[in-house]
Structure formats: C-alpha cells, structure tokens
Amino acid sequence: MAAAAICGLSLSGCADKWDRPALGVDTPGRWKDVAAPKAAWPAPDWWRGFGSAELTSLILEAERANQDIGAAKARIEQADAQVRINGATLIPVVDGTAQATGAPNARTDKLQGSYQLGLNASYELDFWGKNRASVRSAQASAVAARFDEEVVALSVQTNIANTYFALLSSQERLAIARGNVKSAQTILDAIQARVEVGTASALDRAQQRAILDQQRAALPPIEQEIRTNETAIALLVGRPPIRVDIKGGRLTSLKVPKISPGLPSALLVRRPDVRQAEATLAASDADITAARAEFLPSIDLTAQGGFESTALRSLISSSAFAYQIAGGLTQPILDQSLPGNLDLAKGQYRENLFAYRKAAVQSFVDVENALIGVRKTAEQVRLQEAAVKSAREAYDIAQAQLKEGAVDIVTVLNTQQTLFDAQDSLVAARLARFQALVSMFEALGGGWAAGGRPAGGDPLPAFNVPKIAAR
Predict the structure, then answer these.
(1) 3-class secondary structure for 293-354?
(2) Which structural domain, as residue segments, surrounds residue 406?
(3) Is 333:11 a contact under the CB 8 Å cutoff?
(4) Which residue spans traverse the membrane (predicted)?
(5) CA distance 258 to 262
(6) Which of 20, 29, 27, 28 is nearest to 469 (CA)?
(7) Fewer CB within 10 Å, N side or C side of the chain?
(8) How many separate domains does the chain show?
C-alpha cells in the first residue's frame, strides 16, 4: 500500500504548474504608409460600395447557396454538439431499468415470476476541474468554428468580386479588340486604295494585313476568358454554368469606394482568421488543464434504487423497495500515457501559439501590401490614361495624314500598335486597381459574417484567454 501511494504521488508530481508562454506579438502603433490613420472600416455590405447591383446580387446568392459556406456551417453544428457531449460529464447519468423473469417452481411445477423496477445514477465529482476544462475546450473550439465560417465567407465574397471584375475586364478588352479590328480594317482599306494608285507597295499592304490578322486572333482567347470567369462565378454561387447569365459591363461604370484602416491593434479583433487562431489557442490551454487533472484522484458516486417482487401487483410497495449508495476514489499509480498526454497537449498549445503569432503578423503584412497596392494601382491608372490619350492623338494624326499621303506606312503601323497596346494596358491597370481594393477589404477582415453577427463575431468565453499584448 505504501509503495502504491508513493507511485501515485510521484505520478501526480508530473502535473506541475503550467507556465504559459507569452503571446509575443509585436503590435505596431501605426502603418508604414499611413502616418495618422483615420479608420474607415468596411461596412457589413462593403461590396455595395462598388455600385454594381449585379455584384451585390451574386454575393447575396453565394451567401445562401455556396457549398463551402454550407460546409462551414455544418462544422459549427458539429462543434456545438461536441460542447453538449463534453458538458454531459458535469451532470449525473441516470438510467432506468425494468426486468421481468420467469422460472419453474421445483415444488409446484408452476412458472414463478420475478419483477424488478429501478433507477441507477452515477456521477464523477469534478473536484480538480478536469471535466469543466474539457467543456471550456469544446466551447473555444465552437467559437473557432464560427470564425472559420467568417473566413470562408469572406474568401467567397472576395473571390466573387475579383472574378466579376475580371469578367468585366475581359468584356471591355473584347470590345476594344473588336474596335481595333475595325480600325485595322479601315487602314488596310486606305492602304489598298493607295496600292491601286501606286502610292503604296504590296509590302505595306501585307504588313497591315498582318496587324489585322493579329487583332482578329486576339478575340478567341478573350472570349474564352469571359466564359471561364462565368463558370467560376457559377461554382461560387452553387449553380450549374448553364443556369448563370451575367450581364457584366465596363470597369469604368464602377465606383471607387473609400476605405482606410484604423490602428493595427484594432485589426487583431476584426480579422476572423486571427480570432480563429486565438480561440484555437484558448482550446489548447483548456486541454492542458484537463491533462494535468488526469494525474489527480477521481471521485465517483453511484446510487441504485428500485423495487423487486415476485408479484406484479405488489411491485410498487414499501416492502419491495431497496436502495444502495456507494462512493469510490481512483488514483492513477502506473499509467505512462498520462505524462505523454500532458506533453502532447503542451506541444499542441505551442504549435497553436506559433499559428496565432503568424496570423497576427500576416494580418499586418496583408494591410501594408493592400495599402501600397491601392495607392500604386491608382497612380498606374492615371498614368496609363494619359498614355492612351497621347497614343490616340498620335494615331488620329497618322490616320489623317495617311489619307492625305503625307506620312509613310511605317509610322502609321507604329502609332496603331502603340494605341492598341496602351488600351489593353489601361484595362489591365483598372482591373488591378479594383482587385487591390478588394484585397484591402479582405485584409481588414471584411465587415460581414455569414451567420449575421457583427464584424468580429461572438466574444470568447471568459477562461484563460491570453490577452493581446500591444505597444
């Protein structure tokens, strides 16, 4: 007995105090590209800022029908069920029993009956908080599942917006390419007229025909891009491509929403991926508490009570009633899995700690990249618009001089190709600008939750939640 007690005490000594590592997140006081930020956080329906009713309709449909969002909601149901499963350990387990048996009587050769009716109850005293810790772990995991739903929903929103803008870009490029084909045909007709009067050569005509053929060859890939973007949107809204008909339009018809990040410390409570990592970390912390409690004695209480009689009519009577109450204590003595389980829980906590740190730093990186992206793409659009204007002016002059015979064909060909390239680059620059704005919305954590909750989701349960260090 003494040896067993010593083994039990030595095993319990493995459950020493858990020295929780610090979060170690370096939260800056400002952004690198914004000296004094004035917060303009995204609205819950931030996509409406682009002024496209069709985009809004697609995103709202995806909220209802997207398969990934549906799977994320199912994971919330599973997490909530696990909370109820773990919470069942905090209340007694009660079973009802009923039994009827018959056996022949040796003296009378008649069948003699026996009837039993009773209740069995068992309960483990959660003296060390093991069961409560497992419930807290499940609660934190359920919160993490809700933030995961927000991560999935935000990803679906931004994917639809980016794909929709790419579709508009392809439609605009197709319209420009068809206009370029028409312009190239006009110049070819002018050169043909000059060939007929002897002021242009067959080489000039062949060169222009090559440009015309290049412009025509550019049409099928753009048309393919349009169809590919349509099918990508169909997948996001959960419908077969044949059921999706997107009108589209031009990027120039969209509005440019205003958006600005607040303080970096506020970002950490808005980003659903950071909050998910925080909730997962809290669940790991509760798992360590439960693993430590496994080293300590467990106390079980049991109770049985009921009626037993050989006659059914006298079953429910005071003389047939019997009960039993018992209590037991169990102390692990030699179980080498317990230290391993504790080390496993600590290792998982440290892994989730690094995941949280990475998510926090990644949020700062995403915002910085989005800030520079929004600013530089706006500058690129402005400069490219000036380039198109200059190229258009040069092309118009060359085309007019060609009709008058005052310019050589090479000059016309060069100005023509320069204009075509400048127009295509301008559309690409506009697309990059709108996609940079979408990246900014995503970097700031969006403003909408799939479950209809405010941005940032539900607060974490009040238990061992490490505080975010800011400086």
Answers:
(1) HCCCCEEEEEEEEEEEECCHHHCCCHHHEEEEEEEEEECCCCCCHHHHHHHHHHHHHHHHHH
(2) 20-91+129-297+342-443
(3) yes
(4) none
(5) 13
(6) 27
(7) N
(8) 1
The per-residue DSSP string of 71-107 comes to HHHHHHHHHHHHHHHHHGGGS-EEEEEEEEEEEE-TT
Determine, yes or no, domain membership for 134. yes
- The answer to whether residue 273 sits within a structural domain is yes
Q: Can you state the angle between helices 272-293 and 337-404, rounded to 10 degrees?
A: 170
Place of tokens 């402005």: 382
CATH number at residue 202: 1.20.1600.10
Indicate whether 143 belongs to any domain: yes
Helix (H, G, I), strand (E, B) or coil at 21: coil
pLDDT (tens digit, 9 = 90+) per residue, 174-208? 999 999 899 889 889 888 888 888 888 899 899 88
How many Cβ atoms are within 10 Å of 118's Cβ, its own excluded? 18
pLDDT tens digit string along 114-158?
A: 767 778 888 888 888 899 999 999 999 999 999 999 999 999 999
213 falls within a domain: yes
| Chain CA centroid to CA 395, Å | 48
